[in-house]
Design brief:
CATH class of the largest domain: Alpha Beta
CATH topology of the largest domain: TIM Barrel
Largest sheet: 10 strands, mixed
CATH architecture of the largest domain: Alpha-Beta Barrel
Number of helices: 13
Order of helices and strands: EEEHHHHEHEEHEHEHEHEHEHEHEEHEE
Number of domains: 2
CATH superfamily of the largest domain: Enolase-like C-terminal domain
Strand content: 15-25%
Helix content: 25-40%
Shape: globular
Number of strands: 16
Structural class: alpha/beta
Bound molecules: (2S,3R,4R)-2,3,4,5-tetrahydroxy-N-oxo-pentanamide, cobalt (II) ion
Length: 402
């Protein structure tokens, strides 16, 4: 069996997506997501210039060898661009293998460990009242786990505040939007927000929050302590994690569960965090971390320390990644939760899929491979539109982490 062709499809049904389609001499094809929010065309070039020429003629059944070829064989390892390109190849090859076997990727991995996948949605409000309402709306939609983000009095364009309630999308301009950050205001406001949410809705729901890399380790420790009475499911990305050791201080001061990993690319980014039990959830995702072949190694490693998965699932991860993630989530023994931001109707139409939401959970549907396709004729009607993620500065102009 041979790969006969591979091509990259770029489409913008409301936001940009990069998709790799691999065709074989058996008439079976597979697709993989390669979207890197705000840097999409760099992965297109990587795939077209450096990956596709080497794919032609390879045996698509040899997924492991393809992974090693594009990882070890690149010499220049790791990084968001390389690992997304590898992920796209990997997911497309798992899709092909599933179609050839007449099996879902869950079955290829060893079969389902659960009946459906617990997901959390994003409730965003411009202020306290708006956020309380938004959480109520998610409860009404059937969500049992909800991430709450809120506009903060005195902060211009706080992270996570949407323009609509269901479709938050931060990438929005050809040059990054400038936001302003103030840590003290956030540290004062955040516990008030969760106090209000617990007083309004009680303790029956899981509540999550994303700090989006804004705090120092000691500030993170303070926040974690102050949020303990509200029993969060997790506090995410509370400080940058390039230095994994930095989490030791936070861990020593709070029992609020910690989640990290949406910008990680390989197991090496998470190794110390996991083996020193400095986090509770690893948020690496298929598209960001070299595909299913690599993510299952991360999950198995994490299981040794009872660290569970919590894959990133924002709207910049295409339905192809969501379909593949659900296949993975159904199998992975140490599953925690899956992030799920709804795509727009335009996006869902370009990527036909079988997964569906019901009562706070996603059901993958009966599929072979990952079960997500691309309607190329429809995709061609939405040309690429440059968009970038915002940047953040402190009030005196100092660049900060967005
Ligand atoms: O800001 O995916 O947990 N989710 C997040 C996301 C990220 C976007 C960046 O492209 O932090 O909203
Ligand atoms: Co996040």
């Amino acid at each position: 069996m041979k790969i006969t062709a591979a091509r990259v499809i770029v489409t913008c049904p409301g936001r940009n997506f990069v998709t790799l389609k691999i065709e074989t001499d058996q008439g079976v094809y597979g697709i993989g997501d390669a979207t890197l929010n705000g840097r999409e065309l760099s992965v297109v070039a990587y795939l077209e210039e450096h990956v596709i020429p080497a794919l032609i003629g390879k045996d698509p059944r040899r997924i492991e060898d393809a992974w090693q070829y594009f990882y070890r064989g690149a010499y220049w390892r790791r990084g968001p661009v390389t690992m997304r390109a590898i992920a796209a190849v990997d997911v497309a090859l798992w899709d092909i293998k599933g179609k050839m076997a007449g099996m879902s990727i869950t079955d290829l991995l060893g079969g389902a460990s659960r009946d459906s996948v617990l997901v959390y949605g994003h409730a965003n409000g411009a202020d306290l009242e708006g956020t309380i309402d938004a959480v109520g709306q998610y409860i009404d939609l059937g969500y049992t786990a909800i991430r709450a983000q809120s506009g903060i009095p005195g902060i211009k364009l706080a992270y996570g505040v949407g323009r609509g309630t269901l479709h938050y999308e931060p990438a929005d301009a050809t040059l990054p939007t400038e936001t302003v950050w103030n840590t003290s205001k956030y540290l004062d406001y955040c516990p008030k927000l969760f106090d209000a949410l617990r007083s309004n809705y009680g303790n029956d729901h899981e509540l999550l929050h994303d700090g989006h890399h804004r705090l120092t380790p000691n500030e993170a420790a303070q926040l974690g302590k102050n949020l303990e009475p509200y029993r969060l499911f997790w506090l995410e990305d509370i400080t940058p994690a390039e230095n994994q050791e930095a989490f030791r201080h936070i861990r020593q001061h709070t029992t609020t569960p910690l989640a990290v990993g949406e910008i990680f690319n390989t197991i090496w980014d998470a190794k110390d965090l996991i083996q020193n039990q400095l986090i509770d959830y690893i948020r690496m995702t298929i598209v960001g971390s070299g595909g299913i072949t690599h993510l299952r190694r991360v999950a198995d490693f994490a299981a040794l320390w009872q660290v569970r998965t919590g894959s990133h699932g924002a709207t910049d991860l295409s339905p192809v990644t969501m379909g593949a993630a659900l296949q993975f989530d159904m199998w992975v023994p140490n599953f925690g939760i899956q992030e799920y931001m709804r795509h727009t109707e335009e996006t869902d139409a370009v990527f036909p899929h079988a997964y569906s939401f019901d009562k706070g959970r996603l059901h993958p549907g009966a599929v072979v491979g990952h079960g997500v396709d691309i309607d190329e004729a429809l995709a061609a009607r939405y040309p690429y539109k440059p968009a970038q993620l915002p940047v953040a500065r402190l009030e005196d102009g100092t660049m900060w982490n967005w």
